[in-house]
Write a structure and sequence with these properties.
The protein has two helices and eight strands. It is an alpha+beta fold. It has a two-stranded antiparallel ribbon. A two-stranded antiparallel ribbon has the order 3-8. Strand 1 and strand 2 form a beta hairpin. The radius of gyration is 16 Å and the shape is globular. The N and C termini lie far apart (43 Å).
Amino acid sequence: MGPPALWPTLELGGRTLRPCFWITRPTLVGGWSTAWGLPKPVDLAASAGSVYGFRWDPEWGPLDFEALERLEETGVGERTDEGFGELMVCHPFHLEVEPV
């Protein structure tokens, strides 16, 4: 395993997508586990509100929108059961701006 990174990869349609654009700020997350009675490990994470842009090349075939919905439902990365890794595939904001 290499050094931690804040650039997730997505597995979609048999392709590994890497972000072509991102805006993020690193943060450290930890916490307390009542089940263990111990502190949780401290991990590197992307701050809430981080944005990652991925490109799907039309030459790869049609985009699987059901797979995108599953990503929204399950999240990406580690500790999704704690609320990390939530994502929105296309924010309604993108429909509100005027074209340039």
